[in-house]
Task: structure prediction
Amino acid sequence: MPDQPRYFELPRFALIEVTGKDAFAFLHGQIAGDLNDLDHRGWMFSAWCQANGRVICTFILFRKNHAFFLLLPAAMKDKVIRRFSRFVLRSQVGIRDATADHIMMGLQDINIRNTDLFGSCKCTGKMLAAETCNVLELWGPLPRSIVICRQDNLHLMMEKIHMLCKPGEPDGWGLLDIETGIPWITEPTSESFLPQMLNLEEMQGLSYGKGCYPGQEVIARLHYRGALTRKLFLGTGGRPGASIPVPGTGLEQPDTGTRIGDVIDAERHPDGSIRLLAVAGLSEVESGGSLRVQDEHQTRITLQALHYPLTPAA
Result:
């Protein structure tokens, strides 16, 4: 456990703002989650899919006043804005890059509700809305939050955070996301997986009853008539100093070289080993044994099931 709360700068993320009279209807008809859930959950982790059901990107979605915000990997921002814009048509919807207007920061081991760090807050599920920022409470063994603050409020917020926290390691936040099973989709893994394979159902970021959205028929067919054969697992292993596999790297059976998994994200653990998220075949993982990393045959990874709270953002 950390000896002092930590804060993490999050330059790996970007923020997209969606506004306008038709913003709710537009997003509700595009994403895999039910936007009506924001009224009691505060935020959700969900996905935008192709017509064939494959996930283009994953994101955290929340609302501030009349605007909706998508927090997602910075490398996916331009692609999502460009492709979202194709579907606006005659709707009264504005889509813009809001990253430069805001600072995003991660906090670990601070119970936000037991501090006056941000002053008076209005709570909606797992989101706290203050005058200066929005705070999204995440799940995990230690209290963890993402703070989204406008740049013009940054000075006051940072003074308070520096008094309470020490800076975290540059890659530390990514490691925490991996260990709690949050699959950030980037270009190497975009349009490769159905949302059920990324555990979106367990994270309550996938709706089967809200109506049509891109990929809905394929996704619903798997749920009602099919059998899920691949899903997201947490991987551990690798000797100290071994290369960290990049997203899209394969995981193979050591004896046959058969590829049975794909790395979503990976980071170095403080003990020198590797932690990663991978989508892999259920039957192969259940049979036990370690897997080898593609092109790094000395690096062995053991996969294990991920467990989510019953209401990740409720």
